[in-house]
Write a structure and sequence with these properties.
single chain; alpha/beta; five-stranded parallel β-sheet; 21% strand; disordered N terminus
Amino acid sequence: LEACFLAKTSFNTTFTCSIAFFILFSEIIMVKVIIAGGGLVGSLEACFLAKRGWEVHLYEGRSDPRKDSHYAGKSINLALSDRGIAALEHVGIADLIKEEATPMYGRMLHSHGGDLTPQAYGKKDQAILSIDRRGLNEKLLTLGEELGVTVYFDHKLKSVDTKQSKALFVKENGDLVEASADVVIGSDGAHSACRRSVLRSDRIDYQHQYLPHGYKELCIPANEDGSHRIDPNHLHIWPRHTFMMIALANNDGSFTVTLFMPFERFEQIKTEEQLFELFENEFPDAIPVIGKERLADDFFTNPTGALLTVKCSEISTATTALMGDAAHAIVPFYGQGMNAGFEDCTVLENCLNQYPNDLEVALKKYSETRVDDVHAIADLALYNYIEMRDLVTSPAFLMRKKLDNCLHFLFPHTYIPLYTMVTFSRIPYSEVIERNKQQRKVVDRGIVITALGACVGAVLLAKKYGLLNKIPFFN
């Protein structure tokens, strides 16, 4: 507006254009950002910031997965739900990802005898999406480059100077590379070098906890015609109280199978005979669809992974932010690890929009907004392991689940089951826990009142028909 005003005056044209240029670009803050870690969260955050017009430099310790057939990343399939979908919609890639995903409408429980029991996640149209980790990562990297992100592969983060906003990387050949920016974002995983640097320079409480259980990845191959050998539209679970096995469908007709057990049990299996004995006793219906040869090869070839929970009292400093597993690694049993990481991107974006001219305040707000929520989902994920491996077969649990669904049907906006709030809504995780506590109190009181009412009613009926005298307690 000021430029137009000047143009209508008698100022020299060149001078007027210079003034207009200054007025226009003095309001634009060109921010340079380094993102350490080009996995799912880092590549998505690069897209978020590139869309803001920032100068984005993304560093990844591994080679380019689009060119490397022996990609070293994790291969466990991922469950995409509402929180993650919302973040992907922001960068315009959600529809493409959903087209290639396999919807799962509920759990399919496998008994020792091979009986199948379906358990719906929610309403008939509600499903979580099974997606391929590597394929999603590749698409996000490509989108980032199209948006102007500069990507450096084979650059592993060594340390961060949080005061000077500098990062030191190690190349594959051992050479060191130093880079500086206005802000450094660490999305370099559960064993984050960025987090270690932050902890050394700032007074931040940190906690990590390993589960005594590990995991081993197996595979159900596709049929010769490319079809699935078991129902692809359910998350298959073999619950065995202290351990379990799950299977998620892939688009190529195969299933990614993950066996979760105490490390002691993994260590006890040293021969094929011991492995087959375990499966014949615990997962007999899985043997024909996996095949003994494939089972033995996968079990003794693939490593036994560890399960880790990470909590930090703060996840940002004045010039540094942590995202994804670097900020809050969680166990995979609620299917929210990726979704929570993607939601980090949405939360940071909202904070940057709220404080567009004060990066330090925006980063502080991001930490304040996010910490309680990521601690909450970490706790929920640990609880859900108990539910999946044990409670899903409990009659009391199943009755409570039916009651939850009934109340949700009657009061859809007032009473929302825990799983629905976590997976099919964007209610903050910490609020989810509080709402669930309140709902359980109301339901528990209702059950007690109903039981007391039934007892009083029975006594009154017995009195009416003269039956009390026949009960020793009333004599």
